[in-house]
Amino acid sequence: MSVLSLFRSEETPSASVDGRTAVIDIGSNSIRLVVFDGHGRLPAFLFNEKVMVGLGARRDENGALKDDAIADALGILRRFQSLAKAMNVTDMRAVATAAVREAGNGQDFIAQLAGIGLNVRLLSGQDEARLAAMGVLSAIPDAEGLVGDLGGGSLELARIEGGEVHECASFPLGVLRVAELRASGKKGALKSTVSKALKSADWVKKCEGQPLFLVGGSWRALARVDMQRTKFPLPIVHHYTMQAERASKLVRLLARIDKDKLSCVPSMASQRIPHLPNGAAMLSQLVKQIGIGELIVSAYGLREGLLYERLDNHARQIDPLIAATREEGERQGRFPEHGDLLNRWIAPLFDHESETDQRIRLAACLLADTGWRAHPEFRAERGLEMALHGNWVGIESNGRGKLAQALFTNFGGGVGVVPELANLCSKKELAQAARWGLAMRFGQRLSGGVAGPLEKSRVSLDDDILVLSLDRSDAALYSQPVAKRHRQLADAFDRESKMQLLG
After folding, report:
1. Nearest Cα to 20, choosing from 42, 37, 43?
2. What distance in Å separates the CA atoms of residue 238 and residue 252, rounded to the nearest whole number?
């Protein structure tokens, strides 16, 4: 992720800018309102409501949206308008996708919405594919491969490489259409239809062996089934990764599983359950016919792509994990810029780390001062919770595990491996993360969280010694509690501790 900007500079805008944006997504299965707070690189989710309207399935014999479907949609959209107004939304973006695009009276419906003051952008299939891919890039900036957005009415595919969206395609192969093909009784109907579609987009061959990034509620629900079956230790579906062969195994599982058991899957919307077999069938066909390498779930898609679309290239280069943790540190911490300074101070102890570990360590430092309001007995647990369950993007489960261990140790939880992290990281990785936590804890105790002592001191590894070099004017800072944390950190490196005065 070296292309991203990790550190603040005068040219790097803050992740938070005043203002609220609302996105209304009128899809084939659902109509959703999401309100975002701020206009920066990764605005926070303020409100999210989805109503399963099923416009794609509520059309007459001529393909027009039925009157009752339109009435239901209008009622929901009026509510969403009222909520957005009450939340002081300054930027409203409404889009409609396949169900409205393909309906004979789709343009009339758009006109009705304009009549109630809602200007809706009717997306083409190419638009939809491009925006879904942009949404993936907003959350997984180094993603390369194929983006697949499976909706109720259509399937969008887009190739992403080098932080850019390349070829795009859209096919009338949403879960509703897949259901029709599978119920037609024609042997191999889905396989042949997908094959024909892919031949018309022969650029997908470039994605052989690469990941398929899964966008859309049906595929997210499918991933939750897999998470339940594999006893995945985190409840976070974003960036959940499956081997490609899991797709066909899920097809077989869903063919025999008791549907009541699916309703017990955490966060499973009951309206999604009927579509799971069709979503799995489509996924299995894409895996087989393209030769997909692995499957990676993205909770970010078209709606987030609409926000990413408006950013200039400089803003897109900002690392979303670092932007979010920096903003959280500034909001919850006691001293501005503490996290960046702390990271620079401990960096000499970790000279040979990979870029991946460097950015996780920076994220940990940015969050290092966020636990001070919590009861001292529960700060370590707060660190775990924040890392494992926080709404971070640009970080995989392995990274969450290292972040959790670092914060747990930083907040006083000790250096022992936290059992729930053992399935996310190796012992070696957790030991290194614990050293980050001890180094952060040492720096905070020395400085009291303020800048001066860190700016005038340094730590280094010298043969068998972990050295703290202090300005002579700060000699009084090296008290017994500071010396204790110095020894703890040195022990973690199998070294002796030494303090020396400069000047």
Report:
1. 37
2. 24
pLDDT in tens, 111-135: 999 999 999 999 999 999 999 999 9
pTM reported for the whole predicted model: 0.89
- Percentages helix, strand, coil for the chain (3-state, rounded to 5) are 50, 15, 30
Classify 320-502 by CATH class.
mainly alpha
Helix H or strand E segment including 178 = helix 175-183
d(CA 302, CA 98): 13
Which residues, in sequence order, are CB contacts of 309 under 8 Å at separation 6+? Answer: 131, 134
Which CATH fold topology does 20-122 show? Nucleotidyltransferase; domain 5 (3.30.420)
Residue 19: predicted pLDDT: 74
Contact 282, 151 (CB under 8 A): no
CA 145 – CA 255 distance, rounded (Å): 29
Please give the Cα distance from 458 to 433 (Å, whole number): 20
20-122 and 320-502 agree in CATH topology = no
Structure tokens at 482: 């500071």
Q: What is residue 2's predicted lDDT score, i.e. its pLDDT?
A: 44
pLDDT tens readout for residues 325-380: 999 998 888 887 789 999 999 999 999 999 999 999 999 999 999 988 888 889 99
DSSP E strand stretches across 70-217: 91-96, 120-122, 145-150, 155-161, 164-171, 212-215
Q: Which of 258, 255, 250 is nearest to 224 (CA)?
A: 250
Q: What is the pLDDT of residue 464?
A: 94
All structural domains of the chain with their residue ranges: 20-122, 126-304, 320-502
CATH match for 126-304 among 3.10.105.10, 3.30.420.150, 3.30.450.150, 3.40.50.170: 3.30.420.150
* Averaged pLDDT for residues 391-420: 94
